[in-house]
Design a protein that fits this description.
It is a single chain. This protein has 484 residues and is of the alpha/beta class. The chain folds into 4 domains: 126 residues, Rossmann fold (3-Layer(aba) Sandwich); 164 residues, Rossmann fold; 102 residues, Helicase, Ruva Protein, domain 3, CATH 1.10.8.60; 52 residues. Helices cover 43% and strands 13% of the residues. A 5-stranded parallel β-sheet has the order 2-1-3-4-5. Helix 17 crosses helix 18. The chain starts with 7 loop residues before the first strand and ends in a 9-residue tail after the last helix. It binds adenosine-5'-triphosphate and magnesium ion.
């Protein structure tokens, strides 16, 4: 390990002096400062324990009551309590699980001690997150995470288009976050308090799609036992999200076009026109222009939908967002499933170098799987699926990437930190062009970080302001607020 880490404080409460001394030495070895207290002293100092990351405590009479008082006293972020010795027989299993992070037998080894302290750390973060986010709107919680230029641009487009009535067409590969964008558009619109109604046009058989969208009257077709509202009626006043619009059959495309033009529709089996006030957001992973050429998508509908196109970038084009996304997804899992995990720098580096054909959805699935396989644990490269490991199965790329150096959850790390060894592609590359691209990318990042203030960005890049202005002119780089 190269850099000395900041020492974290641990409290030891054990009547056995030898035991306490041994633990003190072990903690010192893994960079944790410790203090020893007797259980009497402990009872007097409930209020002074906020600074401790964890309390290692031997059983004493009334320990569960004491732990409850501790939690009540430090409501926001109570220190985590680890039981020393064997599990006491006089305390029930649920009470043990609720009160203690784990049990430490007397012959504890460094690895286990370190792992348990990591769990304490991660659970501490999870508790804070739950407390902080508990009152937050779940829609906002699922916000569009990322600092890459492409995502900043998408967020700006959402800001611009949300309050208008314009139809939005979201394009992008599977799993890039098209639905997240659609929900954000609705959330930031004036229709926010009305329904957001999604429908996957590709997943519903074509003969049922019309009644799904527009509803039907009783007996209008075999199986139509009663009258039913369609999604357009359900979305009245709000937003309808037509997902996978490229898979909509041609016959339905004509009907949809009519609704857009006339702002009214009829239920299947009825000739009564129903007025509709619904905002349209559509999405597809297909290339609609190609579908038009093939004759499977109507050109007139395309122009009606393509009023305000938003293109979602694939995840492999924005590796710098990966650490942020990983943090967001883990925070979400902590919130929903009360589980967590953390990654070593080597594991994070492997994720930054992976191609992500399934985009953010693939990353979200991986994070969920990791929290199941390693609850509150530390994941290294060898724990990742083999296709993500850089040099074959189970090879850690960094020997120092042990569990002690696992990344804190709240840290957003630039991809450059992980990608510091560029690889020469098999077919070689145009070095000049490649270096220019790197230069442009770093300049853009510096400008983004400094909110477009050129003088500050020049400082970040350690070049003169005039040199930066010159380069921006040469490469036609705009400041972030000029991007439209
Ligand atoms: N920028 C982001 N920030 C946070 N979460 C994201 C982001 N992008 C995608 N996600 C998450 O990734 C998953 C996939 O996103 P979403 O369903 O919006 O993708 P999609 O483009 O509609 O995919 P598909 O084409 O497969 O339907 C969801 O769990 C979503 O919450
Ligand atoms: Mg989708």
């Amino acid at each position: 390990m190269s850099a000395k880490k900041e020492a974290k404080k641990v409290l030891i409460v054990d009547a056995d002096a030898d035991n306490s001394l041994r633990l003190t030495h072990q903690l010192e070895f893994i960079d944790h400062e410790s203090k020893v207290l007797s259980s009497h002293e402990l009872l007097d100092s409930l209020g002074d324990l906020a600074d401790y990351q964890a309390i290692l405590i031997a059983n004493f009479h009334g320990i569960v009551d004491w732990a409850k008082k501790l939690t009540a006293k430090h409501e926001d972020c109570p220190p985590m309590v680890l039981m020393l010795g064997n599990q006491p027989a006089d305390i029930s299993q649920p009470e043990i699980e609720e009160t203690f992070i784990g049990c430490l037998k007397s012959d504890v080894r460094y690895g286990l001690l370190s792992d348990l302290l990591h769990r304490a750390d991660v659970r501490g973060t999870a508790t804070t997150v739950v407390n902080k986010e508990g009152t937050q709107n779940p829609e906002l919680f699922r916000s569009l995470v990322g600092n890459s230029r492409a995502i900043v641009r998408v967020r700006k487009m959402i800001d611009q288009v949300a309050p208008t009535e314009a139809t939005v067409l979201i394009l992008g590969e599977s799993g890039t976050g098209k639905e997240v964008v659609a929900r954000n558009i609705h959330y930031y619109s004036n229709r926010r308090n009305k329904p957001f109604v999604p429908i996957n046009c590709g997943a519903i058989p074509s003969e049922l799609l019309e009644s799904e969208l527009f509803g039907h009257e009783k007996g209008s077709f075999t199986g139509a036992i009663g009258a039913r509202e369609g999604r357009f009626e359900l979305a009245e006043g709000g937003t309808i999200f037509l997902d996978e619009i490229g898979d909509m059959p041609l016959t339905m495309q004509v009907k949809l076009l009519r609704v857009i033009q006339e702002r009214s529709f009829e239920r299947v089996g009825s000739n009564k026109s129903i007025k509709s006030d619904v905002r349209l957001v559509a999405a597809t992973h297909r290339n609609l222009e190609e579908l038009i050429e093939k004759g499977t998508f109507r050109e007139d509908l395309y122009y009606r939908l393509n009023v305000f196109p938003v293109e979602m970038p694939p995840l492999n084009s924005r590796a710098e967002d990966l650490p942020l996304l990983v943090n967001e997804l883990i925070t979400r899992l902590e919130h929903e499933k009360k589980s967590s995990v953390r990654l070593t720098p080597a594991a994070m580096m492997a994720l930054c170098n992976y191609d992500w054909p399934g985009n953010v959805r693939e990353l979200a699935n991986l994070m969920e799987r990791l929290t199941i396989l390693h609850p509150y644990g530390v994941v290294d490269v060898g724990d990742l699926p083999p296709k993500m490991a850089p040099h074959g199965r189970g090879q850690s790329t960094d020997d120092s990437a042990s569990e002690e150096t696992a990344l804190p959850l709240v840290q957003g790390m630039p991809a450059a930190q992980y990608n510091n060894k560029p690889r020469l592609p098999r077919d070689g590359l145009d070095l000049k062009q490649h270096l220019t691209e790197i230069e442009i990318s770093l300049i853009e990042q510096a400008l983004d970080e400094c909110s477009g203030v050129v003088a500050h960005a020049a400082n970040r890049l350690k070049i003169r302001r005039t040199t930066l202005v010159e380069k921006m002119r040469k490469y036609n780089i705009q400041r972030p607020e000029e991007v439209s």
